[in-house]
Amino acid sequence: MALHQPPAVLSTGAGSLSSSVKDEEKQISIHEVEDVLEVESSVCAIDNDIERRLLWKLDMRIVPASMFLYFLCCIDRFNIGNAKILNNDTGDSLVQTLHLTDQQYLVALMVFFIAYALFETPENYLLKKYTPSRWLAFLMFMWGVMTMITAACKNFADLVALRFLLGVFEAGLFPGIVYCLTFWYKPNERAVRIALIVACATLGGAFGGAIAFAVGKMNGVRGLEAWRWLFLFEGAPCCLCAIFTWFVFPDFPETVAWLTAEERALAIARIKGVASLGHDTLRWAEARATLADGRLYVHYLLFIAFSVGFASMSQFAPTIVQGLGYEGLRAQLFTVPPYAIGFVVCVAVAWVSDRYEMRALGAAGSFLVCGVAFLVEALLPPTAFVARYGVLCVALPFAFAISAPCLSWLTGNLRNTGAITLAVPLNVSLATIGQIIGSFIYKSSEAPAFPTGHYTNAGFMVAGALGALTLRAFYVRRNRRLAVGEPRWRL
């Protein structure tokens, strides 16, 4: 027995030792897991911090450059509305100098939008082929030249030809900028940035009115009417800034030199699967699927409705203000406040839409407020100048604010390069239908009340609100049918 006892004692000791070792290993294992979790958490925090710094770097490069380009574009696009009434009290406006009838002036507006519609989609393809910086710089230089040559117009034919060419060269800018944003930003990051860019249209209108007020005092200098000086002064900066655009405007995440290797990898990785990649090419299968996707045509209809109000306010705001009792150069000056308010409203609507993932409601709400404002404008007595001007300061800002949530909603629900390459310019091209309608609804014969214009705008805005809510209900229903883990449609 004595001989067998040591093994028994050894066995017990071994078991105890084994148990002790296992307990110790378990404790080590637990500590290791805790350490790993702590490290992973730290890495995630570092990654988030790196991404925030990257986003800030992108915003400082991409957004200001895009805003500036669109700002100059809108000044040159809207200035015909300022030229129409500039110095008309002395018989020296664009319409009076060129002896244009109301119908001829409207045709000059319309041909711009026809060119815009025809060239938007092919120019978006060329943007990718020649890189954004070079293509946008070329477009900018050429529309600046067209604007300056407009100062030399002698008759209706000259004006129509130059407005058409201006439309050709401006057509690629806005859809091109929106397309470029998809190379860099996730869908839920785009609305505010698109809004900041779109809001520059309101700044363009505000500055355009202020510039026209100042230039109006140059009427007769060197034998030129003030409207000719207006086109010269507003076209020249675009030609100069085209050089800046060629060298500074960012192209693709894969090619820019101002990102580190780590930042470049993160910029590409963060949008993979949710956005467009610069090196991707348009495939016919994707294009065909995009053209056959019925839901996208509802998005296009919303943008057509938006474009009626946008185009009419862009072209006729000075004329409407003139009908509110502000004559001569004062009419130019009083276009500034509605546009300035518009900048704030555009950014606010887009921020709320992005922050709370409610782009559909942001668009519908803007449509509705704008529609009610136009209806009130139509119902007010023609002599209620102060009230009508106050309502205009509501209608115009929300007419512009619709754009950002609509575009962000559309791009957020496009899931491949083919769809983005085609759908964005197609959306803006089809919106030309609305822009042409908007160009014809404010008739000089109906001044100062302009009932046709206000009632037409009210109808399209209310229809847009109903369309946005209907499309939202469609996406909600689709989301309910999706399995867990499948990508959701954005609302």
Automatic annotation (TrEMBL):
The answer on whether this UniProt entry bears the keyword Transmembrane reads: yes
- Keyword Manganese part of the UniProt annotation: no
Which compartment or compartments is the protein found in? Membrane
- What residue ranges carry the coiled-coil annotation? none
* Chief location category: membrane
Q: Would you tell me the Gene Ontology cellular component terms?
A: membrane
InterPro entries named among the record's database cross-references? MFS (IPR011701), MFS_dom (IPR020846), MFS_trans_sf (IPR036259)
Q: Where are the transmembrane segments?
A: 62-80, 100-119, 135-152, 164-185, 192-215, 227-249, 297-316, 336-353, 360-380, 386-410, 422-442, 454-475
Q: How does it sit in the membrane?
A: Multi-pass membrane protein
> Domain Major facilitator superfamily (MFS) profile: where?
62-482
Q: Positions of the region Disordered?
A: 1-20
What molecular functions are annotated in GO for this chain?
transmembrane transporter activity
Q: Which domain of life is it from?
A: Eukaryota
Keywords annotated in UniProt: Membrane, Transmembrane, Transmembrane helix, Transport
Record's PANTHER family?
PERMEASE-RELATED, TRANSPORTER, PUTATIVE (AFU_ORTHOLOGUE AFUA_4G04250)-RELATED
**Name of the protein in its database record:** MFS general substrate transporter
